[in-house]
Structure formats: C-alpha cells, structure tokens
Design a protein that fits this description.
9 helices, alpha/beta, single chain, Rossmann fold, globular, seven-stranded parallel beta sheet, about 260 residues
Length: about 260
Amino acid sequence: MGLLDDKVTIVTGAGRGIGAAAARLFAAEGALLVLTARTGHQVEALAAELRADGAAAVAVAADISTAEGAERSVQVALETYGRLDAAFGNAGSGPVPAPLAERTEADWDAVHAVNLRGSWLGLRAQLRALVAGGRGGSIVLNSGVGALVGGFGDGTQQAAKHGLSGLVLAATADYARYGIRVNAVAPGVVRTPGTEPFFAAGPGFEALVSRVTPLARVAVPVEVAQAAAWLLSDRASYVAGVTLPVDGGITATRSFS
C-alpha cells in the first residue's frame, strides 16, 4: 500500500518544481489528485501524464491568491471524488533578495498576496471542507527555512514564511479536535525553475549554499515532496502544529552567513 492510498489530495502550485514533484510522488503513493496552478496548461499536461500512468488526477487553473481560486480546487475535489482528505499548499513566489528597507509597499503586497494571503485562503477553504466531511484529514503548507533561520532570503518573503508557521499553530489549536492535522515543511535551497536564475548567474551561489548547508548540497524537489507525503499520511498521525525543516541541516547552524 502507498502512503496516500485513496486519499483525495489537492496540490497547489502543481505546475512545476516542488508542486509537480509532489504530484508525481503522491500519485505513485496512491493519492487521488486535484492539481492546481495559475498556469492551466502545465497542470493539464501533468494531469494527463499521470492519468496515462494509471493515476487519478484532474487539473484546475486557478489563482489561489483569490478566494474564488482557493475555493475552486476544493469544489472540484468534491465534485470529482465526493470528498477531500488532504492538501499540500505549495503555491508560492519569491523575489530576488534585497535589503528590507529597500522594499516598496508593492513588493510587500505582491509577496504576501500569494505566500501568506493565498495560503490562508486555501487553508480556510480546505478546513471548511474537512470539517464538513467529518472524517478528519491532513494539510501541509510549504513554508521555508527562512521561517526558522534569520537572514535567509528576502525579508518580505521571510515575514510571510513566519506567518505560515503562525497559521499552522492557529489551525492546529482550532481544528485538531476535528481530527485535522496541519503542519508545514520548511525547505532550504531547492533547485527548481524558480531558483534556476540564481544558479545560472554563476557557480558562486551553489558554492555558498553548499558551504552553509551541513549536508553540503542543494536539495531536489522530490526530497521536499517526500517529507510532505509523510506528514500528509497516516504514518504521521500524531504530528500536528509542526514546521518541519527539510533543509540539509541549515537550522542546526542557525545562520546563513
């Protein structure tokens, strides 16, 4: 049996990177998937790929930074499978790092619209469906090691990631009594299409990441997906309210310098 056998699972930000890796892994672990991204063509292609391999997957083009987009993926899960069991709130974005005082209000709003507001909107819609379903469930948010270690990444994004940890704690306090577990994963540096420009600029970035990471390398997307799959599964049945580092040991050093 797979970790996620027969669990109706939403994956947001599923078009590429960690989200796409999670979709493929969750499908292999038996999940029934609803794949969501703003880029509808990407999730349509991924859902078709998974169906060709025998998995159950539907695609939803939606902007999770809006209430309508967040609620649409839940609605599709209920319409397609009749229930919701789990969700991986992976959608997010990040700017090129800059000193905090150099950021504008527009920078702040753009980062928080997806990373914090969008995550809250998705969490809200998913919690409502899980409570109504009466069977409990599990939700994992994709945060970042910047929620746990100072000086890691852009300050506006880091503030949003701290907010995600707050959402995890609040949701656990409010909904654990319904059998709903809410956790987060906090990746270090992961090589994805979103981070590729940093690597493409030259060897210095990867050398820096390797130097400050005890495991001395960059992560690949499936490594984050594996942690999320475990947290979503019944094997993590007594884990709630946790922001789990998936960072190669960066939090052990407590700095990024």
